[in-house]
Amino acid sequence: MLFLFFVITTTLELVVLIEVGSQIGTGNTILLIILTAFAGSFLLKQQGLSTLRKAQQIIMQGENPSFEMLEGVVILVSGILLLTPGFITDSLGLLGLIPWSRKLFLSHFLAKNARRFFTKMRPQKPQSQQKIMPDDNTIEGEFWED
User: Fold this and answer.
1) Looking at residue 130, what is its pLDDT?
2) pLDDT above 80 for 122
């Protein structure tokens, strides 16, 4: 599946590069790719440092910087996308570096996947080892203080 994703992405990038090159010329296309790389590296540095400062402030306040850490992951992936030559990957990388689109993406991602990430998966016992207790009102849980 991942191989298919890379093949399709690379093919689309080549099609877009050829089309843009035929419209504005080869030299201008190469110049545009270089300009997007410079703009992306500037934004990558700026947003990375901003997120790092924000995480440090939250840690100093004694809070959990998990959202900022997720923002850092999105910034890292965006940087990798910007290093990949092509207009589609550059566009996705730039979207990951814009603060409001990054927060929108992470909010949507967490809303869809929060239950899967924040519930502890425990291995199930085989049916023969499970105790069946009818009308048991005991709730099992864990408690810890921060």
Assistant:
1) 52
2) no
